[in-house]
Design goal:
This protein has 341 residues and is an all-alpha fold. It has 3 domains: 117 residues, no CATH class; 56 residues; 136 residues, no CATH class. The protein is 74% helix and 0% strand. The longest helix is centred in the last third of the chain and has 28 residues.
Length: 341
């Protein structure tokens, strides 16, 4: 009989949790961007009459409740996907108005609000990555996910691939349990596999595109040069502004210093990585990856504060650099493993 664990250890984790959280995040990010674009294009209209004003944070709360209700009422992976999508839209509408709730004046245009929104979604993505890296599930969790898959297939059926996955999840329970689950699977309708789901299709295309880019060695060289040069340029610009006295005149000068500090840390990792290129390329690109993550998880917070949503271009560049460096790091690690003893 297994030893009793904590209350949290008794809650089995869902295999689909990372993809569900990613659905939540993407829905929220798209909602914030579309909301800001719509309000900008329409001159920030006020919905309501007289002394009433219907803020979109209320619609966000409603959609969050609906998404939560879908997950509570219905079973299966499809319910979790719908709940995550609706909840993400609701969270996006909610977090978009964060400036009104952290200022005494209720200022929607509060400059650090963009940084707060970025932090919220960045932390969710960090959580997603942490869940992806924790791939070891205990026997109880594997059984729970196997039965959850069976339940989810009662309405639309399960493909042969999903059936084999269910049996693999319970394989260490012994032949009797495996046979019982196989008989349970026979009660679930069968269906033919559909084309690759949209999310997986785009993820596969992105992976192939990144691998193609990495195969062009000149692109990798340019990325390394950029990682070495861009933080130094930022430090130089901030230093010039400080010497000329322009830094203290900026409204968000504290955020500018945060950008400079982040650039200094990124530059340190990048320079150290460059020094390792001739002796240990895998370690060098691991340090390049750390340098980019410092910028994405720390520097971009201040960048959004200073530049508002104009910082999206810098964020896109950072994500591209991360994809290229990660792909090259993965290639080098595989190359090292293949040539090892």
């Amino acid at each position: 009989m297994p030893a009793p664990g904590s209350r949290w250890s008794a809650l089995p984790r869902a295999v689909s949790a990372p993809s569900d959280i990613l659905t939540f995040v993407l829905s929220g990010v798209v909602t914030v961007l579309l909301t800001r674009a719509f309000l900008q294009a329409t001159g920030f209209p006020q919905f309501g009459t007289g002394g009433l004003r219907i803020a979109h944070v209320l619609w966000g709360g409603l959609l969050l409740t609906v998404g939560f209700g879908v997950v509570l009422v219905f079973l299966g992976s499809r319910a979790r996907f719908i709940g995550a999508a609706l909840g993400g839209i609701g969270f996006g509408l909610f977090i978009d108005e964060v400036g009104k709730f952290v200022t005494a004046q209720g200022d929607y245009f509060y400059a650090p609000a963009a940084g707060i929104i970025y932090v919220a979604f960045a932390l969710l993505l960090v959580l997603t990555q942490a869940l992806r890296e924790r791939k070891q599930f205990c026997r109880t969790e594997r059984m729970a996910n196997a039965l959850d898959t069976v339940i989810g297939g009662l309405d639309r059926g399960l493909t042969e691939q999903r059936r084999r996955a269910v049996l693999r999840l319970v394989s260490d329970y012994g032949p009797e349990v495996t046979e019982a689950v196989a008989r349970l699977l026979e009660t679930v309708p069968r269906r033919e596999p559909h084309p690759t789901p949209l999310r997986q299709s785009w993820a596969l295309r992105a992976r192939r595109a990144t691998d193609w880019v990495v195969s062009r060695r000149w692109v990798v060289v340019l990325v390394v040069v950029y990682l070495l040069g861009e933080p130094l340029v930022v430090l130089l610009r901030v230093g010039v502004d400080a010497v000329n006295g322009d830094l203290s005149n900026q409204q968000e000068w504290g955020a500018v210093l945060g950008i400079a500090f982040s650039a200094f840390i990124s530059a340190a990792f990048s320079i150290r990585g460059a020094l390792l290129l001739h002796s240990d390329q895998a370690s060098a690109f691991r340090l390049f990856r750390v340098a980019i993550l410092v910028d994405l998880l720390f520097g971009q917070v201040f960048s959004f504060t200073v530049n508002q949503f104009g910082a999206l271009i810098g964020l896109a560049v950072g994500l591209f650099l991360l994809a290229v460096v990660t792909a090259e790091y993965r290639r080098l690690c595989q190359q090292t493993s293949a040539s090892g003893p």
